[in-house]
Amino acid sequence: MSHLLEVYPEKVAHLNRDAFGRITGSLEFGLRNQDGDVVERCLTAVNALASYHFKERLGGRGGLGSQVMESEGSNGKLQESISSHFLRLLLQLLLFEDFRMELAGSAADALLPLLFCEQELYQRLVHELLEKEQNPTVKSRLALAFHNLTSSNNLSSTLDRPNRQKFRKNLRVFLGEVSGFMQIK
């Protein structure tokens, strides 16, 4: 599936809702898999999908804008864009679940275009997470880690190789700093 999304993202973007939903459902299932190879391939597929969406939007086109997913929210079912859905999912996996550090590079590659596409959602999710934190020391450490994730190493708003490498480094540092106290919750 990752090969399909890397080579033909524009064709996948125009699938009917049911077919597209099956693909994204498979990706979500794969991201939660215990097999590291499966997770890595799904991260590669999410990267391809999100990169396509980012480049299309940058060019003034719709990208994956017509594709939405239904998710369970705190207020019942909500519809959200594919990029919003995968941003939420990746942050959940990275912060609150047992994520393997050897997959950090692939996770960074998938997360970077999602952050570019969903900057407002990312800021809101970070803000909500910080507001829920009761311990002031943890809250300040977490705020600094999130700030450094997107600000360290002179990141730019591109998906070129040097920028991806900088973001991989930032994510590894971020995970090293927050994984100990976030996964306990």
Describe this structure in words.
By secondary structure, the chain is mostly helical. It has one domain. Helix content is 70%, strand content 6%. The chain is built from 9 helices and 2 strands; from the N terminus they run ααααββααααα. The chain has a two-stranded antiparallel sheet. InterPro entries: ARM-like (IPR011989), ARM-type_fold (IPR016024), XPO4/7-like (IPR044189).
What layout of secondary structure does this protein have?
Elements: H1 2-7, H2 9-13, H3 17-31, H4 36-58, E1 68-73, E2 76-81, H5 82-96, H6 104-117, H7 119-132, H8 136-151, H9 161-182
Antiparallel strand pairs: 1-2
Offer a few descriptive terms:
single chain, 185 residues, mainly alpha, 70% helix, globular
Summarize the model shown.
The chain is mainly alpha-helical and 185 residues long.
**What's the structural domain tally?**
1
| Strand coverage percent | 5-15%
Low-confidence stretches: none
Q: First CA to last CA: what distance?
A: 33 Å
Can you summarize the main beta sheet? 2 strands, antiparallel
How do the strands line up in the largest sheet?
Answer: 1-2
Rounded to an integer, what's the Rg over CA atoms? Answer: 16 Å
Q: What is the residue-averaged pLDDT?
A: 87
Net shape: globular
Write the element-wise H/E pattern from the N-terminal end onward. Answer: HHHHEEHHHHH
Fraction of residues in helices? over 70%
Briefly note the structural class of the backbone: mainly alpha
Q: How many beta strands in the DSSP annotation?
A: 2
Compute the number of helices.
Answer: 9
GO molecular function: nuclear export signal receptor activity
Main location: cytoplasm
GO cellular component, one term: cytoplasm
Organism: Aegilops tauschii subsp. strangulata
